[in-house]
């Protein structure tokens, strides 16, 4: 089966694709908000505008396959300015009937028009459509506005069997054999996506700590480019840092050697990014903006989670201390960083080195902000928070375990860069505080049972005395 080159924009959407889009409207209204990766939870879906609909396999065959970019209309978040709606990437399969193994992929049944009686479903669950995507990447296909591209120096074998990853994630990933993993971004925005940009830059710089992109997909739409997917080598048999840390904690073992190796891995990635991409010096004006942003997030968080109120002034002091150094003329270097580093973003195969993945940054922040150079300490603070999380979610909680990991991680970082992050305590505290506040809001919204974990950090970080905080 070869992909068909039919691409239809909303105004010109005709024939089968037009009927399919009309049939999907009511079905997606129910289905979309239930998806883990749907970012607009809690607000009703009031409608859709298809930005692009591309037929990859025609419905006339046993399996129809459609690539959609849909703008989803929802009422704006309370108090937020009007927003045209987020754009999502969907891969829709159409079959006469779904085999039982695809039951979890069901979106619904078409009741009217030429497709009446057909079943539409989330095609990523189905190996065949997933293989169509790999084949398109392998052959560098151009279908409508879709551009499948690859690094020709890396081989993509055919015949690799596809399976959808079932892990909880913000996007969707397909593993091919044991060789590649394709991450399909779900909520997409125009512009350069750091999840492709940074691994490509690191690969060019010869940094082996990040799986080098093998192929990627983007869409050209109204003179704008949307990054849609990245294919990377699959780190076979790997566990992530969170799993490994919890395993060691359960055995009563420390994680010091691993934490030190992680510190070195982070430092290697930071050094390569600083060489490959521009760095800037943050002077008084930029630091003022940084501190203002942190303070505003604190204020919003206190509104959202009243449990923060008793610590508000102590937390604020972390930011005013940073503002104080800036006012004295202290500057910091900023560079491109990972942006959302935690133990779950670090992979290690049984006897291999650590790799870092998922350079998308915090998905809730605007793309332009995620691509700004920032102090590398921000990533370090994320990892330090993660050791704390692991230790406090163990039974019994093991704060000393976290202490050892945090020290070893900083030492590992210093092994490579010659700079121990602990020698910059004011900046480190400000970033750890900012992250802990973010986590409080995240847990209050998504996992209220976990709220005590970041709250305990908030309590510690709000203390005036540095000794008591560490
Ligand atoms: N190159 C890789 N090799 C092996 N597993 C990977 C690789 N990249 C990602 N994974 C697995 O896929 C999961 C989701 O990937 P991630 O990039 O974090 O997606 P998301 O942004 O959707 O959360 C990771 O937690 C990891 O288990
Ligand atoms: O999955 P994402 O990368 O989008 O990150 C979000 O979810 C994370 C939880 O899955 C959350 O991370 C927090 O919990 C982790 C343990 O589950 C811990 O290792 C992290 O240090 C802690 O921040 C993350 O904050 C959130 O953005």
TrEMBL record:
GO biological process, one term: glycogen biosynthetic process
Keywords assigned: ATP-binding, Carbohydrate metabolism, Glycogen biosynthesis, Glycogen metabolism, Kinase, Nucleotide-binding, Transferase
InterPro entries: Kinase-like_dom_sf, Mak_N_cap
Involved pathway(s): Glycan biosynthesis; glycogen biosynthesis
Domain of life (superkingdom): Bacteria
GO molecular function: ATP binding; kinase activity
Reaction equations catalysed: D-maltose + ATP = alpha-maltose 1-phosphate + ADP + H(+)
Start and end residues of each Maltokinase N-terminal cap domain: 31-126
E.C. number: 2.7.1.175
Entry-linked SUPFAM superfamilies: Protein kinase-like (PK-like)
EC class: transferase
Statement: the UniProt record of this protein carries the keyword Nucleotide-binding: yes
Family that this chain belongs to: Belongs to the aminoglycoside phosphotransferase family.
Assembly, per entry: Monomer.
Identification of the protein by name: Maltokinase
Annotated source species: Streptomyces cellostaticus
